[in-house]
Design brief:
By secondary structure, the chain is an alpha+beta fold. The protein contains two helices and eight strands; from the N terminus they run E-E-E-E-E-H-E-E-E-H. The radius of gyration is 13 Å and the shape is globular. The chain starts with a strand and ends with a helix.
Length: about 130
């Protein structure tokens, strides 16, 4: 089973939901993928799988996958779906990972596009 999760928002280091995955992380690396993220008024971003744009984040290697993904799927709810997508490590190496994407791409109309794809920078500047 694929044990990697790409996080781009509130599960990144220092962010509010990191505690959900902290005990399951065995390794981390800086990474990016193609797509766009949108900031929502509720204080979290959503990812839209798009061939344009760049989203920065972290790649997490996880253990106890069944329990961890069970918890995360419940946390993300019906607004997000877990898919497999290629991400690129800082070294340039492409790898496959899980990522949570918006279930309904039309939901992007409710958020503000984060132009540079960096939630942590955006949140720091807007909170």
């Amino acid at each position: 089973m694929l044990d990697r999760l790409f996080v781009y928002g509130t599960m990144r280091t220092g962010q509010t939901a990191r505690s959900l995955v902290a005990n399951s992380i065995t390794r981390t690396a800086q990474a990016f993928t193609t797509g766009k993220i949108y900031a929502f008024p509720m204080g979290y971003p959503g990812f839209n799988d798009d061939t344009t744009g760049k989203v920065v984040g972290e790649l997490l290697w996880l253990n106890d996958l069944a329990a961890t993904f069970g918890l995360l799927d419940a946390y993300e709810g019906e607004d997000f779906a877990r898919i497999i997508k290629q991400v690129t490590l800082e070294t340039g190496e492409p790898v496959w990972a899980w990522i949570y994407t918006l279930s309904d791409p039309a939901a992007t109309k409710l958020g503000a596009l984060i132009e540079d794809g960096d939630w942590v920078r955006y949140w720091t500047e807007h909170s």
